[in-house]
Amino acid sequence: MRRLFPVTDQTVPTHSAGSPLGAPGEGGDAAQDREWSLDELADAYAYPEPVPDSSPEGLPDSSPESVPGSSPESGRGRRPWLRANMVSTLDGAAQHEGRSQPISTAADMRIFGTLRGLADVVVVGAETVRLEGYRPARARAEFARRREAAGQGPAPAVAVVTAGLDLDFSLPLFTSPLVPTLILTGAAAAPDRIAAAERAGARVVIAGDGMGVEPGRAVRALADLGHTRLLTEGGPRLLGQFVAAGVLDELCLTLSPMLTVGDAQRIAGGPSLAVPQRFALASLLEEEGFLFGRYRRP
Length: 298
Prior knowledge:
alpha/beta, 10 strands, 8 helices, 10-stranded mixed sheet
């Protein structure tokens, strides 16, 4: 893996014969053209330093009880940071035959695992849970020391955004997670489905006045639980809602050097914005033609 941006030298120095200087182990930019360790990836994708929460008055304060397995005090008073992680082909497809795996790569999955290893909670839409066969996040020894130092539990919670709670609560995501799965829904959700979720061991969090979830309230409700390092893995409709609400802070985008044609969804779906939002490039990595970019709200 190579770091393309930010860079200190625009070109790799070469010998007079034309071969690049700095082979692996000898220093130089070419030394980065190798598989990075998980520690290096974790440093490259670290969340911003925490800043005091200065959210405007009027956002709902759910004041929930602590979720078992989490460390809420580590997040209280911090401004939540919502990061998205998505993959897209050259022609804009976020999926192939309904799944993202066919357009991914091993390096992409290493970054996927790293982002989960840094997060307090993974926020995902119900349709993505169904299509991708979501399982609970697992504790990984490689991130144990880093998570402990940050005051985090052994693994991130998974928070499923759903209006109708049309989910199979017999799946391991609900019956055997290391940290109880959260259900984000609206106040008008069917009581019997809420009861079914709670019987399965999930924690139901109300983040909307009607049937659906309001993106800003979802972010605030998770922060109230102590989850301020937020990661969403989509799907496209959920990401579109976060973008439209103006609550997305960062997009980690893998550009896959593939063409699929077809009518697959883009990484974000929904009504277009009146004014496009511009993000700033924070870093760019490359491996085997795949580009791994980080874009932040300016």
